[in-house]
Fold these 3 entries.
Entry 1:
Amino acid sequence: MKTICFYFQIHQPFRLKRYRFFDIGEDHYYYDDFTNEQIMQRVAANSFLPANQLLLELIKAHGGKLRVAFSISGVALDQLEQYAPEVIESFQALAKTGCVEFLAETYAHSLSSVMDEDEFRLQVKQQQKHIERLFGVKPKAFRNTELIYSDEIGDIIYSLGFKTVITDGAKAVLGWKSPNFVYQSATNPNLKVLLKNNKLSDDVAFRFSNYDWSEYPLTADKFIDWIARTPDSEQVINLFMNYETFGNLQPRESGIFEFLRALPAFALKQGIEFLTPSEVALKLKAVGPISVPNPISWADEENDLSSWMGNDLQREALGKLYSVSERVRLCKDHRLRQDWNYLQTSDHFFYMSTKQFTDGGLYKYFSPYDSPFDAFTNYMNVLSDFMERVEAQYPSSVDNEELNSLLTTIENQEKTIASLEKEVRQLRRSGAKTAKAAKEAKAAKPAKAVKEAKPARKAAAKKK
């Protein structure tokens, strides 16, 4: 039986406001709240809410046979909770069906997997906890930022407790092989690797409403027929795409919701099942190892990291940012830690890319800046202020080991003080109880004496 594995990515960055050189040291708030709220509410109304409602209807209509997975970044969850809480509620309704899997990824949708392993580990755990708190399920499968993966990253992912990872079906990695099989890591046979079927995924995500496409219009029966005609030996068709495909990137009037509505019926009619990534990994055996010595991603023909680290601007910004990572991890300042997460988001570095910017491609479409240099300048101004704040709390004149020791001493002192204060409160409560008991006992003695005296007086009266 053929299997379709649907995974949808949900992510929105906290976009930065115009931050000038003269703002450094004066203004510590970096975000364009108006734009962030406007975009999230628009995407929620056009895409997330109607798509979630449709999925819920389809899951019920097909008796739970439609199964899908979502990877939602921590920064997207923060914005949804802030600007569109009704979307969180709609995902909670989907979670209750038991037909939806939530994947783990980096909280900040960051490049930490290739920049800072300690930060990567912390962010994965942070995002897991957030998913568990909101939806009551702990992620079991992993999807890295921008589908970035390598053998080395795979080893880290496995050490974090994951046995399934999804990534891109890059030509450089696959060669003559098909993405429609379950593979295993070349360095760790216990880690199963699911690869995106780029052609079929992009037919929906990018080409669906393209009038110049030779296959336009794409209908559900045609699409399922393509899947059914793949070789019988091929196990699974991994359809990985941005969830905004439904209603935002492909607008409602394109027929994208009607396409999604009809898809499960045509698939089930042809004996094609739907499984989540974890279910695929449990049901299907790996056909062999897949070797990924260098990091790959979903982006461009190269499928490498050049969209985020390909020029001097990007590398300079990333190097500066992660130069303070150890000090930020030592801090307990919530605002500083929050800014640290939001400044790591990969989108900031994507906006600095010089690839195809002048051609009006994806880079220019998604970027709020006039040019990559404009994006770099704005980001570096913000980063300069952020680093000044880190320096003020954790001076670079003190080395990390000494600073860590000092902070540990302070933390231990705070714990000791808290413990002593708790003990004092308990003693006060105990003293108050003792004083109250003594007072009550003292008040009870005269009453008892009177009570005991009454029979004596009665007896004396009888004798008389």
Entry 2:
Amino acid sequence: MKQDLYNTFRKNKLQRKKSFTVLIDPDKVNEQSLDKLVMLAVDAKVDYFFVGGSLVISNHLDDCIKQLKAKCSIPVVLFPGSPSQVSKYADALLYLSLISGRNPELLIGQHVVSAPFVKKSGLEIMPTGYMVIDGGAPTTVSYISNATPIPSDKNDIAVCTAMAGEMLGMKLIYMDAGSGAKRPITESMIEKVASNIESPLIIGGGIIDAEKAYRNCSAGADVIVVGNAIEKDTSLIKEIAAAVHSNSVTI
């Protein structure tokens, strides 16, 4: 039976409980490194694994997810870069619509193509308004999407985009500066967006230390996603998890 993860996201937001997610690119792990990652994640009480990438050129997405599920009970959520990145072994799928861009393929086109397959997958589908924010450097997601990111200092554009996504029925809003971003999303932008929407707010891209993760949570982020920094230094998992969880409000 698939988990009702959306209601967990929603409940956590209402209770002001912050969550930490480790992003795993199947192209960048092997069996041994994944085992180590799982061990560290379990010890740090990581809340979710997001699995996916802009490309995913290897053929072991299913194997990666099955290994995660066999080793721990941390929910696995697909963060797909294309319709082909769907695995029935995951718990849920972020069904991403790139609402920050004007590329019709990533707004609805690829969804039309993938809909029958996604429907048959049995996954919990979470419609997600995906917003790419300028991180100060070209990123894979901005190149693949062929869409101009929202300028990092244009809080009003980000707010209106998030509001529009929510009113169009997106259950989650995901703001991403992209893997390898030189500049993470500002607390000012996070605060403005968070104060104008009711949907759970996911923040990722350019978060390289526990202090930034903590500040993002204080600004209004509900879920913090870190991938690239952890690929370089897995010891960050424990530090960032502790920082995120310490920002939760006990009710």
Entry 3:
Amino acid sequence: MQLSDFDYDLPPELIAQTPAEPRDSSRLMVLNRATQTIETHRLFRDIIELINPGDVLVINTTRVIPARLPAFKQDTGGASEVLLLRQLTPTRWQALVKGRNIKVGSVLTFPNTTITATIAEELDGAERVVEFSEPPGDSLTQIGEMPLPPYIRERAADPERYQTVYSRQQGSAAAPTAGLHFTPDLLIALRDKGVQFANVTLHIGLDTFQPVKVDDITQHKIHSERAELTTQDAEIINRAKLAGGRIIAVGTTSARTLETAALVSAGGDPMNPNQPLDLCPWRPVAAFHADTRLYIYPGYTWRAVDAMITNFHLPKSTLLMMISSLAGREFVLAAYERAKQEKFRFFSFGDSMFIT
């Protein structure tokens, strides 16, 4: 398939600049794959009517760190910026680095701290490996900013609005935005209804910030991300799946982790996932803690995910390709056109979609 197959026009005024208040008052579009119908009249809090007792909501508990660090070159004073993507060791990080002539050996300084960072490796484009003079963890809240997407023009008044209410595992460069719609009260109401919960952790990294640059989408190089599903959560999912409950991924990151866990269960390699494998009928997913390069686009065989809660994604993005794989490209693009006509809000702070 071609990259142009996943393009669409979006009026700029439909890009949400602020989140809905309260969180669960955002609008909800429901896509029913079986009937090929689209509902547009619901609010997100109506999700409680659409999820059944025995279903499992799978949530990504990653927490966004203040990963955007203003910086200066030590030798010239030139402005720079470090966007932390992935921790490699306590002092070593994979990052995107802005600035002129940022090469191996360049030393960066940061306001309000004595910590420095030395460029240890040059990777693709602006990607670098940086070595800090000391672990930056405790200082990130002093020197770092929340890395909001570039289409959001104003800094968040409350940084917690770019965190899910269930976030706890520090390490992400972006929020799993499908989960931003949940409130504590809604989660409790779902639990009281008999809905089960399982946790995954996937720290969102470089692909969130990297556009697809090839016309043939099968040639896109997807970057690896660290993901985890514990034994306890895998058991919750497997028991529910065998009992007939639906596995509902909250967001594309949860979906990617679940499908990686199904790959692992079938004996596959998460770093080399493009091999045909049969689903294990008695153990649909397996616990794992590893890097994954699973790239989901139309033609993919879904093994674990039955339904998905997701936001409206950027044109030509791997996330749009993933939901097109689940629901069908033409159906998804028709839904996006309907969303535009009815003034849904798009992207990270925008409205939600339930693919069932």
